Amino acid sequence: MRLLGAPASPFVAKVRMAGVVAGIELDMETVDFVGNSDLLNTANPLGKIPALILENGDAVFDSSVICEVLDRMSGNQLIPQTVEDFRKIRTYDAAVTGVTDALALCIYEVRYRPEDKRHPGWTDRQMAKADRGLTWLEDHLDDLGDDVGLGHCALGALLSWMDLRFEGKVAKQAPKLTAWADRVFEDHPEIAAKKPHLPQG
Fold first, then answer.
1. Spatial separation of the C-alpha atoms in residues 198 and 85, rounded to whole Å
2. pLDDT (tens digit per residue) in 114-140
């Protein structure tokens, strides 16, 4: 199966980590999601990454749906099936996604909008969402449990992406999350190998 994405994307990293946990091989294929990739637009009409092309040619998007498909394919290796544990993990994943989205919007405001068109107040609101989310994620770490699954992949991808884009922020605001990530990546180098990274060259 082919995973269309970019190496620095936290959402792509989450899926790649989930593939490792699920024991499913995903062939990563880098696409230009900022420009106009015909391959990506065919797989996902929204032009967003990641998109997974299945062996039969069908496409799956977005990252949460892809992870749910991988979970089903693996016999539920990623998401627990009791109502309470399912609720905890899916809610945790949603919180991670919300933090990621808010931080990405802050980046895009600077990267793509001319300086005279930027709205600091709007960016401040997005950062406030992210800050509240990080606090919540730290307060609810126990919801992840000990078995590595979707929540571990989502949080690990977010924190390692933040190390790329917001260096020092997590360590300063949520040291328990930093300690958690260090421990998980040390114990599971195969997952650490899928962390977001800047393209070479």
1. 34
2. 677 777 788 999 999 999 999 999 999
